[in-house]
Design the sequence.
């Protein structure tokens, strides 16, 4: 191995960031992986299964976490946010803000603090579908496997109770936020995406009807670590839905919302149809689409398999209206563009296939030299080098493409260091 | 899909629709949001998604003779929700203006009415007719166009005799009716064939009595602007349209009353201000001016919807008729004789434009939309 001419900073610990960081570290470079959440895995950690193989992401993530543990050159910083970046390709000066976790490495995840903690709050990991304690583990498979205390209970009796009950002296209420300075030669932004805010799509009723949920909420409902322990139950009355509608392109390919295709939502809905069909064998699934985008041979095959299921009905026509059908049911209205008839389909639950919006769409990344397209995706400037966006910070992509892209960006970062 | 069709796209038709305000039509990707967004679209074979693909493919026959394009009141709900900015509302508006031209005879006059370059000609035509006819009659000893009217009181008929007015407008009303009759003959046949083809009716033929009964059921809907006010985006438009609609209705009644009083009761205008008919005339005139001003304001402030020449021409004429009408009366009461006679002449030019070019201008929707709505009612469309 040639002598390293610098270190690499990877911003974002989702599947893309993990891949870039590990690929670079495993060929001998010093890598800092900065993640704003208290855990790694990002959006993938919230998924129930990957498409098209239908295996749980926890499996793939576990392998990556093991690679991290075995690699001394990779330093992971969670609850950390990049504040400022100065410098040029080859030498960047980065300030990173580290937020206090209030729990140190002594934690064994015994859960005593969670038991005694009385404060409850909405669980954003599950999109608010259940509540968590002020002292909690982000989710069962979280890495680092360590509890944290919400800043909301700091200074309260609750925090004291947690500290008193901990047998391992793992709770440190005096932890404070601090700033850390890093000198790196290249930066890879793997800042990922946010689900598009479904409540902004007025005509699709999200937020007005409890049984209209988003595709990411469906992942959490189906996930064994989710709010219902993996049972797909509709939010209003915990009933097993016998009929479900999927509303494709909810706020996607739409000039009024996200003008682009998010690439994954068609496959995600087809995949989620299998969740429902498996749990509720008699359930009817109605998928309303503009056109089904299942790119490539493997996805096409998956689509054909789902299409062959007689309980899954695919209707060409975008849902443009939803109505209350009583008892928590909703009626979705579309025109079947093949038959030219208007359809009002009453279902017990509806899933909006919302798209992905790059994190940078809401707030620009703290690096002046980055360029973005109109939708907030970073445009990579390979000629200039130094900084690159990987995965969904660069374009909407599935896990496979994100990983391929992230591996490529690891190489781009290395090339910058090599000058 | 076992059925095979041979599509024969009419590229010229596509170009023309794009030119008439439907320039966005190719953006449509057939998601069908519009058909659901439309508050007045029927449950079976809803519009305008199918019209959008027909326009995109240049299927003229599926559009021009399609009653559905007239069911649309261009409220813009579809355009607001359209994810592609394809503006189905404007595309249907463009198709309607194409259809008006298509069913009008003679075609050259229809083209002229919708050509901005020909606007001066449209105004010169009535001026020429008035002067030529007036001077000709004068030459043969009939003094119906008198450039130096005498008397204390301003009486417009002393300048432009009511008989001259009627000599021009009575035959032209017959011509308007005749042109519509010709157009409607083809129009009714086409919309019925289209309905049979697209499975929008279970009626084999159009039967006269049943059709009239349907008209009876549709008229209250039109009077109440019921369809219009179902629209979400452009609620305000229903109000201004209603003002203009009712002022025309009022003025139509007024004209008939005065026609009756002139020829049957032999009572000559100007009529006293306290007369009930005069009241109706004044209220209608004011409503016409305000309504058309509101419409113009609405169009100017709506940047997401296309306004084309045909829209502006009609609004200009309507406002012109209202303004010159009111000014004629005001200058008469203000005893400004010369000005009043002049404005009256201009008023007659505007009225000529409104009336004689009715089968060719956007105002023809009055007839086509009424007939299409009646047909749909008759056909039992749900």
Sequence:
């Amino acid at each position: 191995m040639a002598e390293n001419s610098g270190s690499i900073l990877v911003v974002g610990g989702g599947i893309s960031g993990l891949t870039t960081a590990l690929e670079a570290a495993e060929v001998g470079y010093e890598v800092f992986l900065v993640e704003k959440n208290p855990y790694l895995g990002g959006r993938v950690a919230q998924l129930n299964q990957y498409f098209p193989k239908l295996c749980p992401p926890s499996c793939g993530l576990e392998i990556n976490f093991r690679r991290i543990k075995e690699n001394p050159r990779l330093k992971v910083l969670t609850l950390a946010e990049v504040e400022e970046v100065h410098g040029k390709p080859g030498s960047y000066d980065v300030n990173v803000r580290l937020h206090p976790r209030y729990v140190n490495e002594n934690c064994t995840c015994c859960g005593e603090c969670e038991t005694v903690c009385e404060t409850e709050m909405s669980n954003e990991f599950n999109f608010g579908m259940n509540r968590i304690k002020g002292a909690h583990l982000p989710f069962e498979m979280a890495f680092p496997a360590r509890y944290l205390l919400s800043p909301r209970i700091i200074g309260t009796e609750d925090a004291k109770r947690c500290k008193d009950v901990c047998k391992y002296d793992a709770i440190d209420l005096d932890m404070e936020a601090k700033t850390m300075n890093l000198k790196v030669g290249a930066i890879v932004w793997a800042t990922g995406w946010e689900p598009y805010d479904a409540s902004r799509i007025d005509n699709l009723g999200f937020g007005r009807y409890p049984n209209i949920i988003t595709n990411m909420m469906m992942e959490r409902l189906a996930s064994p670590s989710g709010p219902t322990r993996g049972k797909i139950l509709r939010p209003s009355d915990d009933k097993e839905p016998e009929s479900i509608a999927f509303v494709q392109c909810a706020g996607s390919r739409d000039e009024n919302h996200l003008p682009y295709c998010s690439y994954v939502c068609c496959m995600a809905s087809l995949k989620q149809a299998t969740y429902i069909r498996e749990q509720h064998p008699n359930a009817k699934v109605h998928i309303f689409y503009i056109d089904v985008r299942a790119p490539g041979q493997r996805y096409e095959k998956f689509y054909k398999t789902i299409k062959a299921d007689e309980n899954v009905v695919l209707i060409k026509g975008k849902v443009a209206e939803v109505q209350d059908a009583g008892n928590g049911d909703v009626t979705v209205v579309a025109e079947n563009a093949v038959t030219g008839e208007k359809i009002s389909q009453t279902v017990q639950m509806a899933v909006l296939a919302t798209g992905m919006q790059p994190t940078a769409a809401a707030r620009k990344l703290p690096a002046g030299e980055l360029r973005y397209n109109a939708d907030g995706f970073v445009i990579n400037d390979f000629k200039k080098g130094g900084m690159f966006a990987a995965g969904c910070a660069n374009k909407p992509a599935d896990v496979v493409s994100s990983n391929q892209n992230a591996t490529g960006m690891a190489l781009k970062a290395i090339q910058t260091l090599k000058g | 899909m076992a059925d095979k069709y041979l599509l024969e796209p009419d590229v010229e038709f596509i170009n023309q629709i794009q030119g008439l305000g439907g320039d966005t039509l190719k953006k449509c990707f057939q998601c069908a949001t519009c058909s659901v967004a439309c508050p007045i679209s029927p449950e079976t074979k809803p519009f305008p998604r199918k019209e959008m693909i027909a326009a995109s493919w240049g299927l003229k026959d599926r559009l021009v003779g399609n009653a559905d394009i007239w069911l649309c009141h261009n409220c813009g709900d579809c355009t607001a929700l359209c994810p592609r900015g394809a503006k189905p509302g404007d595309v249907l508006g463009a198709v309607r203006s194409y259809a008006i031209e298509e069913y009008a005879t003679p075609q050259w006059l229809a083209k002229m009415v919708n050509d901005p370059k020909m606007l001066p000609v449209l105004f010169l035509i009535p001026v020429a007719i008035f002067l030529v006819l007036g001077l000709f009659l004068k030459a043969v000893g009939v003094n119906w166009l008198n450039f130096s009217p005498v008397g204390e009181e301003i009486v417009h008929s002393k300048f432009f005799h009511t008989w001259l007015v009627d000599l021009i407008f009575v035959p032209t009303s017959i011509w308007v009716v005749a042109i519509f009759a010709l157009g409607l003959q083809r129009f009714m046949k086409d919309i019925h064939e289209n309905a049979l083809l697209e499975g929008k009716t279970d009626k084999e033929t159009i039967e006269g009595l049943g059709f009239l009964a349907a008209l009876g059921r549709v008229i209250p809907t039109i009077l109440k602007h019921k369809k219009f006010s179902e629209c979400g985006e452009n609620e305000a438009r229903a109000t201004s349209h209603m003002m203009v609609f009712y002022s025309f209705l009022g003025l139509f009644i007024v004209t008939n009353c005065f026609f009756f009083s002139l020829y049957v009761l032999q009572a000559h205008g100007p009529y006293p201000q306290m007369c009930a008919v005069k009241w109706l005339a004044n209220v209608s005139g004011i409503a016409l001016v305000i309504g058309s001003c509101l419409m113009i304001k609405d169009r100017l402030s709506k940047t997401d919807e296309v306004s084309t020449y045909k829209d502006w021409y009609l609004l200009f004429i309507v406002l012109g008729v209202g303004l010159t009408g009111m000014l004629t009366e005001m200058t008469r009461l203000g005893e400004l004789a010369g000005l009043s006679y002049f404005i009256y002449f201009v008023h007659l030019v505007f009225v000529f434009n409104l009336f004689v070019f009715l089968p060719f201008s956007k105002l023809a929707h009055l007839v086509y939309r009424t007939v299409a709505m009646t047909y749909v009612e008759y056909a039992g469309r749900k």
User: Anything to note?
Assistant: The mean pLDDT of chain B is 92. The radius of gyration of chain B is 23 Å. Residues 11-103 of chain B form a domain with the Fumarate Reductase Iron-sulfur Protein; Chain B, domain 2 fold (CATH 1.10.1060.10). The CA atoms of residues 65 and 187 of chain B lie 6 Å apart.
